[in-house]
Write a structure and sequence with these properties.
Low-confidence stretches of chain B: none
CATH superfamily of chain A: Ferritin, core subunit, four-helix bundle
Low-confidence stretches of chain A: none
Order of helices and strands of chain A: HHHHHHHHH
Number of strands of chain B: 2
Order of helices and strands of chain B: HHHHHHHHHEEHHH
Radius of gyration of chain B: 21 Å
Mean pLDDT of chain A: 98
Number of helices of chain A: 9
CATH topology of chain A: Ferritin
Largest sheet of chain A: none
Oligomer: heterodimer
Number of helices of chain B: 12
Strand order of the largest sheet of chain B: 1-2
Chain lengths: ~250, ~300
């Protein structure tokens, strides 16, 4: 079921990034930013729920949103690697978020045209949230880049180290190609130049240097992950796995 | 009438005291202490619950918990803002929290060991907090009273959410039922302590009541809590860990057993299971955030300068 895989890819992406951001709750650098990161986490987990519910329906085997989130293993997860990278410092989190938000904003804009009515509706609803995420992470890129010497250095380091995970966002795998041909998925090739353009513009305003390296990590969307994902799932899934069949 | 008499007469007539009004120094100090303690409790309270966000057992529970902890951050914000109207900066209050000179609710110095604890915190801890806080909506100090109206609305939602988590466990597997009872056993007495020392040992109560900062005594509120929880425990099919709880026909209330005040004072003094851990976590977040706050300030200044140049 290619379509199921496609929806799971989107759902896993939202869930894992939401999970990472939720690790900040209570630990943010400023109370207002603690709330903002938590808010984005909340939006993403909410999006993941809608997507898993749709996936469960498409699969039609009686699995629930929770079965899909809590009872699949590391190699079953189909999110791109970038969302599972550990939070690092606030700058690392902002750089990861910014690169992702630029992609996600363009992606959901296009997904609104999907022939799958549910995906299109989810895209429309999510886009309202993602617009805010993008504004938030872009603002912080500027603040940190053009803030103090220390912040400039930290955010540049963050940009440089997360860069190798950005390519996967706009590179199509087989599932995405098939979904595009059926009018359900988004053409990532057409997103790529928009992504590059937008990233370039914000990095310039932030007085940051865009990395030149073109070598990119990939594999997450096909289930080949970093070592980090296993720990995320071990933590996230432990109650469901300890108490099989229980209702919460 | 002198200033103090005028002030008291306003309080007696239930006219709100506003930040610019004259107020006795001790009134101001009491409020700063109380509001900041309350704000700190919200912020520190995010930690034991936040502890379970990444482990929440279903997506629905995860969303509920994230939203709840975020509400607490919001409560912290309004309360710090209410304290600021009395002339004290948020940063000063943070310093007092970090160096241990300011207190926060001792309940958050207990660990969350199971998922049921998230339910127990909602049911018992938020339940006790609501008993304390609903009367504060009528507090004589305007900004505090107004902040509390919003806080209480959200708290009562949290309390229901917590109860519902426990209700699901009570209808679950044997392991879930055991998890529920074990958690209530741990949280009951610390929740009872949340109302503070017994009236006989609470020297400021009389003055706070005269100033209408406080409307009921600690023991009155504690009694109300026991009366309400007894019935709710039956619905959850749990036993409250107090063999002395029984209906007293004459008083029209439930009697309850002796609170372990040694434990209470121990935790207040910093010797609870998580006091050091909680403060260390807050200090770490604050210190690691310093460069971010500095960057935001520097950026804002640069933007201001650029704007001025253009103008």
């Amino acid at each position: 079921m290619t379509k199921l895989k496609y929806i799971l890819q989107l759902a896993d992406t939202a869930l894992i990034l939401g999970h990472r951001l939720s690790e900040w709750t209570g630990h943010g650098p400023i109370l207002e930013q603690d709330m903002a990161l938590t808010n984005i986490a909340l939006d993403l987990v909410g999006q993941a729920r809608s997507l898993y519910q749709h996936a469960a329906e498409v699969e039609g085997k009686g699995r629930t949103e929770d079965d899909l989130a809590y009872l699949r293993t590391t190699t079953d997860f189909l999110n791109p690697l970038i969302v599972e990278i550990p939070n690092g410092n606030f700058g690392d989190t902002i750089a990861r978020q910014f690169f992702f938000d630029v992609y996600n904003h363009t992606f959901y804009t296009e997904l609104q045209k999907s022939k799958d009515a549910t995906l299109s509706a989810i895209a429309e609803k999510s886009l309202k949230e993602v617009k805010y995420h993008l504004r938030y992470s872009s603002d912080w890129m500027r603040r940190l880049g053009d803030g103090t010497e220390e912040s400039h250095q930290k955010i540049q380091t963050a940009v440089d180290s997360i860069w190798m995970y950005t390519g996967e966002l706009t590179t199509m795998n087989e599932v995405e190609k098939e979904m595009l041909s059926e009018g359900i998925g988004v053409n990532l090739e057409s997103i790529k130049p928009i992504w590059t353009e937008k990233v370039k513009a914000v990095l310039a305003e932030a007085t940051l240097t865009m990395p030149e390296s073109t070598w990119m990590q990939s594999g997450g969307k096909d289930g080949k992950h970093t070592e980090h994902l296993g720990f995320i799932l071990a933590e996230m899934q432990h109650l469901q796995r300890t108490h099989p069949g229980a209702t919460w | 009438m002198n200033l103090e008499e005028k002030f008291q007469s306003k309080v007696d007539q239930e006219i709100k005291i506003e930040p610019k009004d004259w107020m006795p120094d001790a009134y101001r100090k009491t409020l700063i202490r109380q509001i900041s303690q309350h704000a700190h409790s919200e912020i520190v309270g995010m930690l034991p619950e936040g502890n379970w966000i990444t482990r929440a057992p279903s997506l629905r529970r995860k969303v509920g918990l994230i939203a709840k902890v975020q509400d607490e951050a919001g409560h912290g914000l309004y309360l710090y803002a209410a304290a600021e109207t009395l002339g004290v900066e948020r940063n000063t209050l943070f310093e007092q929290l970090h160096d241990g000179s300011a207190k926060y609710s001792s309940i958050f110095n207990y660990p969350t060991l199971s998922w049921a604890d998230i339910g127990s915190i909602g049911w018992l801890v938020d339940g006790a907090a609501i008993m304390n806080q609903v009367p504060l909506c009528r507090c004589s100090f305007g900004p505090y009273a107004r902040a509390m109206v919003r806080v209480c609305k959200e708290e009562s939602f949290h309390q229901r959410q917590g109860f519902e988590i426990l209700l699901a466990l009570s209808k679950g597997t044997e392991a879930q039922k055991a998890m529920l009872q074990e958690s209530v056993n741990r949280w009951w007495w610390p929740s009872m302590m949340m109302f503070g020392p017994s009236d006989a040992d609470s020297p400021h109560t009389a003055r706070s009541m005269k100033w209408k900062i406080k409307r009921f005594t600690n023991d009155e509120l504690r009694q109300k809590f026991v009366d309400v929880c007894y019935e709710q425990a039956k619905v959850l099919n749990v036993t409250l860990p107090d063999p002395d709880i029984k209906w007293n026909e004459e008083r029209g209330h439930f009697d309850y057993g002796e609170i372990n005040w040694d434990e209470f004072w121990d935790v207040v003094k910093g010797n609870g299971p998580c006091n050091k851990q909680r403060i260390a976590t807050r200090v770490k977040a604050h210190e690691e955030g310093a460069w971010v706050r500095e960057a935001a300030m520097a950026y804002a200044e640069k933007q201001e300068q650029r704007k001025n140049k253009v103008a």
